[in-house]
Amino acid sequence: MTAWENSGYDIESLRHVHVKELSAQSTQVQGFSILDVRSQQECAKGHVPGAQHIFLPELLGRQETLDKIKPMAVCCDSGYRASIGASLLQSHGFEVSNVPGSWQA
Length: 105
Description:
By secondary structure, the protein is of the alpha/beta class. About 35% of the residues lie in helices and about 15% in strands. It is built from six helices and five strands, in the order αβααβαβαβαβ. The protein is globular. About 20% of the residues are buried.
């Protein structure tokens, strides 16, 4: 990272919101939308009520179905796919936060 930065390339970081912080807040009051990027099989085992589901490999093809106005928290099983999804959406102008640990937190 240091070599990248020293070469003059931009570095961006993702905002993070902890799962406990998310569950303590009403998504309606805070204006958050929640995006679950897990597979359909994973979502069938349990999901966050009110969350929108788009499997990570389909995300860029379906980003137009997402609301760019509301801040979005992206979650998955461990947080790995959520960070990828959040990075992709951030690069397309969405206000996103990654949920580290996601379902495993």
